[in-house]
Amino acid sequence: MRNILCFGDSNTWGCKPITKFGFTDRYGPEERWPGVLQSELGDGYKIIEEGLNGRTTVYDDPVAGADRNGKSIFSPILETHMPLDLVIIMLGTNDMKPRFAGTAFDVACGAGALLSMVMNPIAGWLGDVPKTLLIAPPELGKLSVLDGIFEDGHTKSKKLASEMEKIADMLGSPFLNAGDYIRTSAADGVHLELDAHQALGLVIAEKVNEILV
């Protein structure tokens, strides 16, 4: 059995596009992309979902709380699920919020910090060091109900994939730009429609088969 950890935000958790502020609904286990990945890879794989709404790469969120900081919780999550064969990281969307005031390069470096934690695990790690896959989230689309949260994040998000690819190359991690295959929903500009989850799960499955040969 090969174990794959999917570490991400609301688009890994499966949040449906938001049409009314404050209302959040979730796709079913087999509908969101980790479930599609599980179905495509089959019984020889165990897909572990670790998605959380509002999760950032390395930032404490002064509004949503410090528990949204991906780096602060990453080590115990890695330990909880070891041994792991592959860790997939898809974060960065929430880092686009103006409250964090970082550049696209800063966000990519945050993702790089998470990659480094996987590549340099704690002493006593069970099993081999996992392989990694860094996924750049798709660009923010036209914002509606979430405009006040992300404001000019769309401009910054256009640069994110190229900056993340540089960091992945530097650290020797495989990379995937989700924006080459899917777009965010026209309903809120941030989250994914059902067909995007399906498409993303399938393309990630192809990438996993390349990595875990």
What does this 3D model show about the protein?
- With 213 residues, the chain is an alpha/beta fold.
- It has one domain (2-211): 3-Layer(aba) Sandwich (Rossmann fold), CATH 3.40.50.1110.
- It contains eight helices and five strands; from the N terminus they run E-H-H-E-H-E-H-E-H-H-H-E-H.
- Strands 2-1-3-4-5 form a five-stranded parallel β-sheet, sandwiched between helices.
- Helix 3 (70-81) packs parallel to helix 4 (104-119) and helix 4 (104-119) packs parallel to helix 7 (160-171).
- The longest helix has 18 residues, at 194-211.
- The protein is globular.
What's the structural blueprint in terms of helices and strands?
Blueprint: E1 2-8, H1 10-13, H2 33-41, E2 45-51, H3 70-81, E3 86-90, H4 104-119, E4 131-136, H5 147-150, H6 153-157, H7 160-171, E5 175-177, H8 194-211
Parallel strand pairs: 1-2, 1-3, 3-4, 4-5
Q: Which regions are unreliable across 5 or more consecutive residues at pLDDT < 50?
A: none
Shape: globular
Distance between the termini: 14 Å
CATH topology: Rossmann fold
Number of domains: 1
Biggest β-sheet description: 5 strands, parallel
Beta-strand share of residues = 5-15%
CATH first level: Alpha Beta
Q: Which superfamily, in CATH terms, is the homologous superfamily?
A: SGNH hydrolase
Rg, nearest Å: 16 Å
Number of helices: 8
**Could you estimate the helical fraction of the residues in percent?**
25-40%
From the 3D coordinates, which CATH architecture would you assign?
3-Layer(aba) Sandwich
Give the strand order, joined by hyphens, for the main sheet: 2-1-3-4-5
Structure classification? alpha/beta
